[in-house]
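Progress against Task 2.4 (sequence-to-structure conversion) is shown through the following example record, which the project officer requested during the mid-term review.
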Amino acid sequence: MNTTRTHSTQAGQPGARDPFGAHLRHWRTRRRLSQLDLAQEAEVSTRHLSYVETGRAAPSREMVLRLAERLDVPLRERNALLVAAGFAPMYRQRSLDDPAMASARRAVDLVLKGHEPFPALAVDRHWNLVAHNALVPMLMAGAAPELVKPPINVLRLSLHPEGLAPRIANFAQWRTHLLERLQQQIAATGDTVLQALHDELEAYPAPQVSHDTPASDMDLSGVVVPFQLATPNGVLSFISTTTIFGTPVDVTLQELAVESFFPADAQTAAALAEMAKQAAG
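Structure tokens generated for the chain above:
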């Protein structure tokens, strides 16, 4: 499992027709690096880097990749940097259903299945549901039909007043947690679709429902933010982890994340075991 670094948001994303220098300046500014800082990290002269950024010098393909690596640019945007510099894209982007991705899809399915009887799901870069195990549909039950039609956006489903929001016992805490995670992702990628999603979610009204939250078997405060969901089996409490591919060479794989939920107390563990039996039957 890898962690995602947080970066600061600056100017808007350059367009496909913008020169390489504009893309480079965008990412350098976003990462809060001066030309001197980046030049030192990339082991090039500040003068040459300045020439590349202003368009007075053309970078080599090796230089583009080196700068992208030092700036921690996502693979999708590295392709954009290569194209802007006059080179062919390097990283493939294929659907997880592509035959060439069969081994990756099997790996994802094994992780999801192996996590049962606890819920787990895989999402793409925009938090659209890609795959899930048998427990997930049982937790989504009761949401408005339009929210569970593919593509299902799990953040929208979670915070929408006609989705899971009325059933989330610690809604305010969970909402803050999700919006902070989304903002970190926006800062790292500069993705305008994610920014629009953030604005949409932030505007949703809070549900006018309260739930009796059971005491947990362990004190999780200051360590993780629990996810507490009211179900016919009572209020279930979860902690979650995010797993990403460590060294992907495919855009789709880099942008794929597996969210695994674990029971935060004995009552939740018992309830999930019973729900797993129902799903299997």
